[in-house]
Amino acid sequence: MQQCIGVETLTIDLNAMGLNYSEQLLEHLADHTIFLPRVHTLRLRAVPPDTIDLLQYLETPVLVKLDLGFQGENGLERHGFCNTVASFLLVQSRCQATFRSLRIHMVGVESEELADLLRQLPSLTHLILDDVYFATTGNEVLFKMLEASSGEEKPLPNLEVLELLACQPRNLHVGSILGFVNSRRVIRRGPLL
C-alpha cells in the first residue's frame, strides 16, 4: 500500500475476520506507518472491534471522512476505541483542518469517551451513529455533555447533519437529544423579510 500514493478512497473490508499480525510485520509497521497523502475517505468494513488498532499503522493527512463499520454481536464493547480514533485523527494524521464526517457502526462505547472524542473534532459537519450501543448510561450523558452552556463555545460548532440510526430503545433518551438540538438553536433578532 505504501506505493499507492494516488489513492483517494480506501475501503478495507475484513469480512469479520481479525488480522493475523506477525511479529515481523508489527515491527516493520511500528517503524514505517503507511502514508496515504491523498486519501480523503477511509472506510473500515466488517471489522472486529479488537482490530481497530489497524488505524495506528495509517497516516492520512487530508482525511475528510472516516467510516468505521464493525462486525460482531450487537453491543460489543471496545474500551479505548475513542482514544484510538482520536490518536489516529489528531496525532498520526493531523487532519483537523480537513476532517468533516464520522460514521460509527455497531460498537459499544461509553458516552463520556465518545463525548470527549467529539469535543476534539470542532470541524465535524456530519456525525452518524448507527447501531451504537452506549454501554452504561445510554445517550443521555453524551448529549448532555455536548449541550452548549451559556457563555461557553458549543461543542461541534459546525455540525450540520446528525443521524442516529438503529437506536436501541433502552439507550435512547429523546429529552437529551432535544436538549442538545435546542442548545444549538439560533435565535434571530430583527425583522423577518
What do you see in this structure?
With 193 residues, the protein is of the alpha/beta class. It is built from 5 helices and 8 strands; from the N terminus they run βαββββαβαβαβα. A 6-stranded parallel β-sheet has the order 1-3-5-6-7-8. Helix 2 packs parallel to helix 3, helix 3 runs parallel beside helix 4 and helix 4 runs parallel beside helix 5. It starts with 8 loop residues before the first strand and ends in a 10-residue tail after the last helix. The model has no long low-confidence stretch (mean pLDDT 79).
What can be said about this structure in brief?
The protein has 193 residues and is α/β, with parallel strands linked by helices.
**Overall pLDDT metric:** 79
Regions with little confidence, pLDDT below 50 for 5+ residues: none
The side-by-side strand order for the widest beta sheet comes to 1-3-5-6-7-8
Q: Helix fraction?
A: 10-25%
Provide the descriptors you would attach to this structure in a database record.
25% helix; six-stranded parallel beta sheet; two-stranded parallel ribbon; alpha/beta; single chain; 193 residues
Which helices and strands appear, and what pairs or packs with what?
Blueprint: E1 9-13, H1 23-31, E2 34-35, E3 41-47, E4 58-59, E5 65-70, H2 81-92, E6 101-109, H3 111-119, E7 126-134, H4 139-146, E8 161-165, H5 174-183
Parallel strand pairs: 1-3, 2-4, 3-5, 5-6, 6-7, 7-8
